[in-house]
Design goal:
Elements lengths: L5 H5 L7 H14 L10 H15 L2 H8 L16 H4 L14 H6 L22 E7 L1 H6 L1 E12 L5 E12 L8 E4 L15 E7 L5 E4 L2 E8 L1 H6 L1 E5 L6 E5 L8 E4 L14 E7 L7 H13 L6 H10 L1
Parallel strand pairs: 1-5, 7-11
Antiparallel strand pairs: 2-3, 4-5, 6-7, 8-9, 10-11
Helix pairs in contact: 2-3
Length: 319
């Protein structure tokens, strides 16, 4: 019978706590899981890690394993003479021929954990999948259904791992925001030996919009205003995701001022909506007729407004 160093396989010390053994197992099982590992020997290492954990997680089996002594991995050995009767494997003359260490220790509780050895195999959860769902802002506002395709690694009936195409139809709830992560329980990889199926995680990525910028559930819209609209005030029509609405622009609105429309942003899962902020942008006409130019000249003659008055103040303070 060949010796296997279960502690070395899990990368823990021989006095490691049960909690540390579990943490080491979970890390290595994920690293070498057939759905994840690209290591050609990943499946073999995955089985070794599972075998080591199956023994060391059980206090009775671990104690029996420790009493076998410390040997070199792969070294042929025999248990001490009194080991068999002490651990319920038979009398002192019990034959250890044609048996391996895994089955020897599994027999302590009358069970088997390796497939094909007369008992149930260990169960492992399926792999979690993660995929990005690209969604338009309009679809995020109303909610939509998207179809996603990805290639995943799954075990077949013979236990061989192969890549297969999977297609998912997923409902995106209204109000989904950029960067949001949605979990679909049981939509991931198939569990091994009856283990639970993994989960599918969707990362929401909103397409850039030609008009609106998104921050959480709030929307921002640049609002072009003619100079006289900004000075005199006006009622203008602006777009929203639910259709156009009227917005009152107060007199003397300066460039950069944010005009808030509550409830015109993206819906929130817990109820209510974000806001729409219209940011005033003063736009100068690209062309003017003679009458318009005459009015601008008249305004220039009578106006006392100096947009650069702060230049002189700042220079004076500097001295």
């Amino acid at each position: 019978m060949k010796y296997k160093d279960y502690y070395e396989i899990l990368g823990v010390k021989r006095d490691a706590s049960a909690d540390n053994i579990k943490k080491a197992y979970r890390k290595l099982a994920h690293q070498y899981h057939p759905d994840v590992s690209k290591d050609p020997k990943g499946e073999e290492k995955f089985k070794e890690v599972a075998e080591a954990y199956e023994t060391l997680k059980d206090a009775e089996k671990r104690a029996a394993y420790d009493q076998l002594g410390l040997h070199q991995p792969g070294e042929e050995f025999r248990p001490p003479p009194d080991w068999g009767p002490q651990h319920g494997t038979g009398d002192a003359n019990f034959s250890f021929q044609d048996i391996d260490l895994e089955d020897l220790l599994a027999g302590l509780t009358g069970g088997r954990h390796r497939a094909g050895r007369g008992g149930a195999a260990m169960q492992f959860p399926g792999q979690d999948y993660e995929v990005t769902a690209h969604v338009s802002l309009e679809d995020a506002f109303r909610g939509t259904e998207v179809e996603l395709s990805l290639s995943v690694a799954e075990p077949d009936a013979q236990g061989q791992v192969r890549r297969v195409p999977r297609t998912f139809k997923v409902r995106i709830p209204k109000g989904a925001t950029d960067g949001q992560r949605l979990r679909l329980a049981g939509k991931g990889g198939k569990g091994i030996n009856g283990g639970r199926d993994g989960d599918l995680y969707l990362n929401i990525a909103l397409h850039p919009h030609p008009l609106f910028r998104v921050s959480g559930h709030d929307l921002f819209l640049d609002l072009p205003l003619a100079p006289w609209e900004a000075v005199l005030g006006a009622e203008v029509e602006i777009p929203t995701l639910a259709g156009p609405v009227k917005l009152k622009v107060p007199p003397h609105t300066r460039a950069g001022r944010q005009l808030r429309l509550g409830g015109r942003g993206l819906p929130r899962a817990q109820g209510g909506e974000g806001a729409l902020y219209a940011i005033a942008q003063i736009v100068v006409p690209t062309a003017s007729n003679e009458r318009e130019l005459a009015l601008y000249r008249q305004l220039a003659e009578i106006s006392t407004f100096n947009p650069r008055g702060h230049f002189q103040q700042e220079v004076s303070h500097g001295h």
